[in-house]
Amino acid sequence: MLRLPLLARGCLVSTSSTDTVPGENEASANPLLAMQGLPAFAEIRPEHVAPAVAAIVARSRQILQGLESDDSDGWDALMLPLEEIDILFEYGWSPVEHLLSVASTDELRAAHEAVLSQIVELRLQLRQSEPLYRRLLRLREHRDIAAAEARRRIVERMIQSAEQSGIGLQGDQRVRFNEIQQQLSQLATDFSNHVLDATKAWSLNLTDAESVSGFPESLRRLTAAAWSRAAENSGGTAATAEQGPWRITLDQPCFGPLMEHSRDRNLRETVYRAYVTRASAGALDNGPLIERILQLRREQARLLGYDCYADLSLSQKMAGDVAAVQQMFDRLLQASFDRAKKELEELSSTAVEQGQDGPLAHWDIAYWAERLREQRFSFTDEQLRPYFSLDRVLDGLFGLCERLFGIRVQRAADAVSVWDPDVRFYEVMNDAGTRIAGFFLDPYSRPANKRPGAWMNDCIGRSVTVRGTRLPVAHLICNSTPPAGGKPALMTFREVETLFHEFGHGLQHMLTTVDERDAAGICGVEWDAVELPSQFMESWCLHRDTLMQMARHYETGAVLPEELYMKLREARTFRAASQMLRQLQFGMIDMALHHGYDPDGGETVFDVERRVLSITSLIPPLPENRFLCSFAHIFAGGYAAGYYSYKWAEVLSADAFAAFEEVGLEDAEGLQRTGRKFWDTVLALGGSQHPLQVFRAFRGRDPDPAALLKQSGL
Q: Closest by alpha carbon to 537, among 649, 666, 397?
């Protein structure tokens, strides 16, 4: 297959023959052992996993043995071999984990599970190597890093990582610590798989047109297409958007619009109850996994000398301690709670006026919020959708980046190996026309084999060493509404914001100028600052020039009417307090579970959730609510005792966007000048400096929370 010129023509320099893992024949037979270019995703099979892992584990141990027997000082002597191990993981293992998220199969899961313990064991062996640790301690004092802040931060983080990976533990304590790591890794994988399987397993078929009353055309097309896919597999008859049948699923492009538009209150209740009880019963029950995960995290933290897992987690973050996080929670809760109560009262009045009997239930909130928004601003999401075709939105996004940063984004001319036909690959050029990065874009929902949500992962990290330059490549993953009924992919405005959000993460990964891999892009950025670029990019969705460039009717090419644009802007802070409260709930539940909760005490995790909701929720939760069983952010992702990061970073991002407002959002030269400064600081410096130092370099001062409250209308 063809390789991308960006990487195949020397931008990714392969290492010498002594550095490669397999022989040429082995590499050609197993795409996970290629170690150069882009991963050959379309060629990767479950049977490739075990031999690839065996090869990279063997080579990594060989490198480690060499490092442990060598006593050389200096940066290159230690870091170049360690980077080679990173590259082995990047090519031989990361593609497997990526495919589990975007193209999962039972066979791939089994292959992954069979070797996972080997990967965890190797990582622990690296972090618990005492000779390696001693060399890191010496390197911290070496002249090679005396004047290089990025290198100093890398070494300090590696020392901290070793210490938090049990380097100081001996005997039975280390054995137990390693057992915990193995179990946590498997539990996280199981948790994620359960959510995917539970989401995929539930569906509801509707055959009566009255049942889909209120469904917008896009939802009818989507649910008819879901029926048709199922019918094709079973030999049934295809559906039409007009006549049905319609298949309801729990993936977000179906669930979200249904809750907003279905006039059938019983249907909304049925779907809502199914959604909040996913992965909470039978073989897919994540409840026991949650309890076990929290027990093991607490034990892990105490083995390392911390009182609780939150203290361990926050030792690596910008906030520093639980008190700082709680202070933020308190301020935002105080600013939003009373306003959110008024917003709920408005919804209740709207529901009564339009004939609903009885108090508002959870499955009524989105429906009546959409009715109130239509009433107040005289537009609907469905009126906007025809103006946001994916290709037009991408044009607007890329045009914005060209105006702010001087970069150009273009579809790769040559074929690239992808995991699904809808996946695209793009190249990023600087203002001189030189390729500096690339990214895969996987835009659409595929509930059968792709986990829900949206995320950015690094595919290849940037580094510059004596061996050459490796350019960064990102994975940008969304779950937007796919094309259906002969129409292109038409996005909701929230899906547009999500795309901008993930592209913000991608920009930090791709526009880094740091040469050291472990501080380039998102690497080494404190977790509670990593959402700054993503949430910053979301703020541009309502910028007039940006919006008007991408908001064009997919059939006529007509620009979004000015009246609709103004209404969209006016609606920006609609129910902002309620949205703030919802995010605070997630963050406070996460912190309560990892800070004050005793897994061996009398409370259950659901008791903790209800306790937090008693002070943050305006409607009591359902007794059977099991939202935690699908809260993958904290049980299968990187947000354990860290979900607060979204709000913490939103303070930073709102203040960063205010810098552009101050120069004038219509001042092209001012925007370009400020955009370049944003690139030179926030995007370029990655993890090479502390995020507060980076923010000060951009804004000239510490962040001001007032910017977020102003942006939220609070």
A: 397
For residues 506 and 558, membership in a common domain is answered with yes
Domain that holds residue 418: 386-574+646-711
pLDDT of 660 above 90: yes
Whether 583 and 660 map to the same domain: the answer is no
For residue 322, the domain's CATH number is 1.10.1370.10
180 within domain boundaries: no
User: Please, are residues 654 and 707 in contact by the beta-carbon 8 Å criterion?
Assistant: yes
Of 163, 166, 155, 162, nearest to 73 by C-alpha is 155
Of 256, 278, 300, the one marking the end of a domain is: 278
Question: Considering the domain boundaries, does residue 668 fall inside one?
Answer: yes
HSE-up of 595 (CA within 13 Å, CB side)? 18
Set 343, 502, 531, 538: catalytic member: 502
Query: Is residue 666 among the annotated active site residues?
Result: no
List, in sequence order, the alpha helices (H) in 453-543: 493-510, 532-538
- Phi, psi (deg, nearest 5) at residue 469: -110, 135
pLDDT digit string, tens, across residues 497-556:
999 999 999 999 999 999 999 999 999 999 999 999 999 999 999 999 999 999 999 999
pLDDT at 16: 30
For residues 371 and 413, membership in a common domain is answered with: no
Are 692 and 552 contacting, i.e. CB atoms less than 8 angstroms apart?
A: no
Phi, psi of 326 (to 5 degrees): -65, -35
Tell me if the pTM is above 0.85.
yes
Question: Is residue 425 included in any domain, yes or no?
Answer: yes
Residue whose tokens read 């050459």: 468
Asked if residue 394 and residue 335 are part of one domain, the reply reads no
pLDDT tens by residue, 7-62: 222 232 223 333 445 555 565 689 999 999 999 999 999 999 999 999 999 999 99
> 519 and 688 in contact (C-beta within 8 Å)?
yes
